[in-house]
Design a protein that fits this description.
Helices cover 28% and strands 10% of the residues. It is α/β, with parallel strands linked by helices.
Length: 103
């Protein structure tokens, strides 16, 4: 076993080997920052691994910052999966009338 309270970059193709080991630790998660690829359905079997997808605002702003990880690719990659969305709210978002109400 190993402690996974630290962050590291892992190549996507290695995750299928690493995630079963992470699932055995008390506190672990996987973070798919841009979600350029489809999240494998078999990852749903893990009890202690959370897949977290970062989103930068609504589609126009996100797509500009995160190409090629566009909203459309994210929606396709997470369809039918249980994931956590991470979105940082910025001052620019709060100052735009109705911006957060639309998200």
């Amino acid at each position: 076993m190993f402690n996974c309270r630290w962050r590291t970059l892992v190549r996507f193709r290695e995750l299928n080997e690493i995630l079963p080991q992470l699932d055995k630790t008390p506190h672990s998660h996987a973070r798919c920052n841009q979600c350029c690829r489809e999240i494998p359905r078999e990852w749903q079997r893990f009890k202690r691994v959370k897949v977290i997808v970062s989103v930068d605002g609504l589609a126009p702003e996100h797509d500009e910052r995160r190409k090629p990880a566009t909203y459309a690719r994210i929606l396709n990659g997470i369809e039918g999966r249980k994931i956590t969305i991470h979105c940082t709210v910025t001052r620019q978002m709060t100052e735009r009338a109705g911006y957060l109400a639309n998200s």
